[in-house]
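Entry 0007
Protein: histidine kinase
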Amino acid sequence: MKNLKIKQKILLLTVIPLILTVVAVMAVSIYQIRSLGSQELEQIRITMMAAKRESLKNYMEITETAIQSVLKNVANQNEAQERVKTVLRAISYGDEDGYIFALDYRGVAKVQPDQPQLEGQSLIDLVDANGVHLTEALIQAAKNGGGYVSYLWDKPSKGRAVEKLSYAIVLDEFDWVLGTGFYVDDIDDAVLLKQQEVDAKVQTTIILSLLVGISILVLVIIFSVWFSNRALVKPIRDLAESARQMSLGKMDTVISVNSNDEIGELADAIGRMQKSLNVIFKKLKQMPRK
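Output (structure tokens):
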């Protein structure tokens, strides 16, 4: 700091606080955007999950209505079961990922549209990668008056197992369990899309903050340079030049600095010193020479 000129010191004292302020404002803005974004993402997930749950119930109500219309017109149970299977296989929604499945109370698959090869097989011992005994859980949820079960299951459109939430009910006429579900990764995709929007907002905020900060910084530097030259550097240089002229014996040097600050006080002090020196020099000139 000792080797820095006044102009440089002024710039440092001006620029550093400004930079810190811009960084602080940017940090607070980014934090607020991310915080609000996280809350919004969580709300989106909750809202979509609630809507999906309600949709599953609605699909099962529609399915029950369709089944009851079939059962009214068919007396033979075997024929009724085959017609119900036909109805269930015909119901689809959400492209190829939405379908209705059916199990009996022993866990034997009666209708499995996504994997027809499983029909007729017992799925009672089926366990997903997370250790969920999904068939047992679905049967139990249905017998309890209808309920939801979360487990991993192959998604036709992706060809791999993803988390699925299913809603199951009983079909008392056949001692079957009917169910349908949705894949949670649909919600994850929607949340991810929103997360990308939040990240884009953060990036935009950073860019705008930098542009505004740099613009303000440039203006402050220009003003500081102008102000320091006009109010500090030039007057000090003028005083230094006046003092140098006086040291060379030019006691009639005009001190042109006139201000009400510390530099003005210094100029007054030099002016008084100049007058005192002039008085001393006059007295010396008037003294007789020996």
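Curator remark: The chain has five helices and six strands. The beta strands are 92-93, 98-104, 109-111, 147-155, 160-171, 176-183.
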